[in-house]
Amino acid sequence: MGVVTEVTNQYQKCIDACVKCSQACYECFESCLNEPDIDRRRSCLKLLIECARMCEMSMAGMSMNSQFAKDHCKLCQVACDQCAKECSMFQDDHCQKCADVCRTCASECASMSGF
What distance in Å separates the CA atoms of residue 100 and residue 66, rounded to the nearest whole number? Predict the structure, then answer.
């Protein structure tokens, strides 16, 4: 259910997935900065931030019932899929958990956007 209205109830599951994914990406980013092989993670680090920001934009679009909400979610699906792929290359617990959260978000975005 929406926080102050019921207008976005149709999007709530995807909104929640985007919020969780954004948080997971930021947490994984912080953890990756402390890994000894940080040079190997440059692409992953960039994707983590891009994915987190895309999730935030998608959540905002859905929250305001934007006419572009489905378009944002389609892009978010792509970003989350790519981030999951990149994170899954690293065996750290935080990267594996982040990849799982990204996959879930990608699935929710795909459902929401109808693609």
Answer: 27
pLDDT at 9 over 80: no
Distance CA 53, CA 43 (A): 16
Contact yes or no for 29/49 (Cβ under 8 A) = yes
pTM of the model: 0.92
Expressed in angstroms, the distance from the first to the final Cα of the chain is: 24
Backbone region of residue 114 per phi and psi (left: phi > 0; alpha: psi in -120 to 50; beta: other values): left
Q: Which domains does the chain have, with CATH numbers?
A: 9-113 (1.20.1270.360)
CA distance 80 to 40: 20
Tens of pLDDT, residues 47-91:
999 999 999 999 999 999 999 999 999 999 999 999 999 999 999
Q: Which of 109, 41, 34 is nearest to 79 (CA)?
A: 109
